[in-house]
Amino acid sequence: MKNLFKFILNTIPRPILLKVSFWIRPLIAWVLKGKAFTDPIDGKSYSKFLPYGYQNQRSNVLAPGTFSLERHRLLWLFLKNKTDFFTAPKNVLHMAPEQCFLDLFRKQKNLKYVTADLYSPLADVKADICNLPFKENEFDVIFCNHVLEHINDDAKAMSELYRVLKPGGMGIFQIPQDLSLENTYEDFSITSSNERAKHFGQYDHVRIYGKDYFERLRSVGFIVEEVNYSATLSTNEIEKYCLVKGEIIPFCTK
Q1: pLDDT in tens, 46-68
Q2: 192: which of 13, 121, 201, 230 is 20 to 30 A away, CA to CA?
């Protein structure tokens, strides 16, 4: 099973994979329904979650009903319990929208919700993150999760996110991060898919962010709070929702 998922993730183009997943999810969710683990995003419980990963596949992490991963479930709980995202009127920009959030966010009556990406078939607006087609100070909330590690000029992308965020607005920009590294590891001479996978953990990544990621965000103007939200959850909650202890949510304001 693990080898099958690894083959699928590394050989099927992501736009096709996204489209296929919409009709295959209900079937997988039905097969794996149970009581052992719960996805807080859809509130449904399962006997187990699916494996997921490119280089190093992790077991029991992909929720069958929404295809959410650990980071998605952690973010959902944080938004629900620590912000007014689901209750107050918000003008929201979601870069590279994750399918586990897409329909639910679109249905929120308090949100004016816009999605954008250069390639994703899920996005409303085709947009280059380094040259966004939006006005200055336009959005109350910006999500841009697991995107910046794909972008060569991440400083330019961060500056664009800062430009279109309203003063007082919030941005959440999750990335794969190795907190054992003081400094981000990047080498732009590495261009082949195989070498990028070997050095950066995935064939289309161009860096591994270290602890200095938060300073990179601050350098373009963001006020950054490094939120260790999982530290506020019980061991039972961590296990029930299949979360990772110690993952930091970069909570940015302007």
Answers
A1: 999 988 876 677 889 989 899 89
A2: 121
